[in-house]
Amino acid sequence: MEKLNSEKQYIDLFQECSGLIAEHSSEVMNALRAEAFEKFSKNGFPTQKVERYKYTDVPEAFKPDYGLNIKRLNIPVNPADVFKCDVPNMSTLLYFVVNDEFYTKAMPKAGLPDGVIVGSLREASKQHPELVAKYYGKLADTNDSVTALNTMLAQDGLFVYVPKNVVLDKTLQIVNILRADVDFMANRRVLIVLEESAQARILFCDHAADDRNFLTTQVVEVFAGENSSLDIYELEETHEKNKRFSNLYVDQKSYSNVLHDSITLYNGSTRNMADFNLNGQGAEVHSYGCAIADSSQHIDNNTLISHNVPNCQSDQLYKYVLDDKAVGAFAGRILVRKDAQKTVSQETNSNLCVSKEARMFTQPMLEIYADDVKCSHGSTVGQLDEMALFYMRQRGISEAEARRLLQNAFCSQAIEQIRLEPLRDRLHMLVDKRFRGELNKCGGCKGCK
Question: On the CB side of 313, how many CA atoms lie within 13 Å of its CA?
Fold first, then answer.
């Protein structure tokens, strides 16, 4: 049976351009393309009958004809001109990724500790092929068709490597800028490796510099070694013409500590998947998220936390505020395997539908095969408290301001999980601006104001 147009155009593209794709990438990345292509050709895009994709219409999102920069032509952009965001009082090492290519012309002047690598994945896999090949593609599951498509087409991205016992004092801030004169597709790859007892904090900021239709696939692989500590913060602040598909895969060794916080302030359609594998005793994962949507925006977060060994902990908190005709979805699955005794896990999803037309789909799940565990999960969907609104109105607060205050208070619990105080303070301010309508487009880019 002939594949639908959504798949066929990418199958034809790869068959026609596989040589060019490989020519402008690296041997390490090229080694996985053929297998990924076979799986994508066989499986096609998942329909909404597939459990993990039932809240997002993937074939429809990939159906339009987007341009790709397979030949790696120079796309003129000056990050200093288009990027105006800043997090005050937080000293970061600032890097840029333009579409799906690491931008080498704006590297930070401050040096990194010996052995630390932050830069282009393509170049790192040429300069350190054995190191990159040890990890690249080892977590990313190409049975997932979005991951398979990314593996077929990605030519560059970001590589972060922190050796044993090295602590990065400064946060790595990675600014992903979408830039094109035509409707455009970017396929970005990220590989993060922390060796034993290493520590790092990484902040990803997604912005769009042009008012075009963008489609981004992103696959992130994270290896957290024994006793390592890693914070990953993702902040999306693009526009309504942006579609984002991001798949995160995390492998944690003994006593590693990973915090992942996903904040969606402004978007078009977003589908984030995060898979955490606790593979060493004493490992901890903290998974948080906050999503704000109105108009006809769509936000779908799908997570899986696998407790594979005893004595591990996880906690998860996602909050949504939906207005107008926005659609939100959260599906979080906690899997406790047979030998994972002494597991401690908590999962919470709380949602606020401000309008009667907003829709929220929530599915917290526990799947437990061990008998000595402490696990809980819960979900709520509600509207603004009319009694609280009445109480505030009686004290001279306008209805609009009262609504903003209640929505801010609802989001604050998720924001407070951020361990970086300057970033936490900045996000409180950005959330307030979002509810006031002052972030109606990508707030960080000159062209979007």
Answer: 9
